């Protein structure tokens, strides 16, 4: 006969059924709700509070599992990168080397054998022009481009950042999707040396 629980089977305060910290179904429930909310209102229009309301949990539980909204989004769409980490790495070299840092970080993600398939899937989603691609573009604009723009004390900063994105997307598509030579087999450092100065001119020239 199984031993009786010392609490008589009662749940402690603040521990409703299906909401236990660490319960796998709760985490899945939050992710399902997040996907629904992002699809319904877009990245910019979605909040952690709205995700929590849709999932039927306290917002603190969303933060417990995932942190801020950008990390909820990355988990919900299984994105391969953390935007905060990317921005910190790009800014680490200082404003005079931002173009080089941006190129090195970008191509470094593609060179990682574990991340490469997910980067390829992300690029194809962006190029597809469907709802998921729009969500990802909104996310990257808000969490990566906008953060870099705030560091640029130059006119037309948003246009400059957009030109950087267009340049990198074009190189990535040619190199990793079309596999066109000589880009497909070019050394990564050679690409950084070639693309970095162009990015720097866009950012600060």
Automatic annotation (TrEMBL):
User: Does this UniProt record's set of keywords contain DNA-binding?
Assistant: yes
Name of this protein: TetR family transcriptional regulator
Q: By its UniProt entry, which Gene3D superfamilies does this protein fall under?
A: Homeodomain-like (1.10.10.60), Tetracycline Repressor, domain 2 (1.10.357.10)
Q: Point out the DNA-binding stretch(es).
A: 47-66
Query: Where are the residues of the annotated region Disordered?
Result: 1-26
Q: Provide the alphabetized UniProt keywords.
A: DNA-binding
Q: Which residues form the HTH tetR-type domain?
A: 24-84
Residue ranges, compositional bias (Low complexity): 14-24
Q: DNA-binding among the record's keywords?
A: yes
Q: Which PROSITE patterns match?
A: HTH_TETR_2
The organism encoding this protein is: Yinghuangia aomiensis
Name the InterPro entries on file: Homeodomain-like_sf, HTH-type_TetR-like_transc_reg, HTH_TetR, Tet_transcr_reg_TetR-rel_C_sf, TetR_C_16
């Amino acid at each position: 006969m199984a031993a009786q629980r010392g609490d008589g089977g009662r749940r402690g305060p603040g521990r409703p059924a299906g909401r236990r910290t660490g319960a796998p179904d709760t985490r899945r429930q939050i992710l399902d709700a997040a996907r629904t909310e992002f699809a319904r209102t877009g990245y910019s229009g979605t909040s952690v509070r709205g995700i929590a309301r849709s999932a039927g949990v306290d917002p603190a539980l969303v933060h417990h599992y995932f942190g801020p909204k950008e990390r909820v989004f990355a988990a919900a769409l299984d994105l391969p990168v953390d935007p905060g980490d990317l921005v910190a790495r790009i800014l680490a070299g200082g404003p005079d080397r931002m173009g080089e840092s941006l190129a090195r970080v970008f191509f470094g993600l593609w060179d990682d054998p574990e991340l490469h398939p997910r980067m390829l899937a992300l690029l194809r989603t962006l190029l597809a022009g469907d709802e998921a691609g729009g969500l990802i573009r909104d996310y990257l604009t808000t969490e990566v481009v906008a953060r870099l723009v705030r560091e640029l004390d130059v006119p037309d900063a948003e246009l400059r950042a957009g030109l950087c994105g267009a340049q990198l997307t074009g190189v990535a598509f040619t190199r990793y999707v079309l596999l066109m030579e000589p880009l497909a087999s070019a050394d990564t450092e050679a690409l950084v040396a070639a693309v970095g100065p162009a990015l720097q001119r866009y950012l600060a020239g």
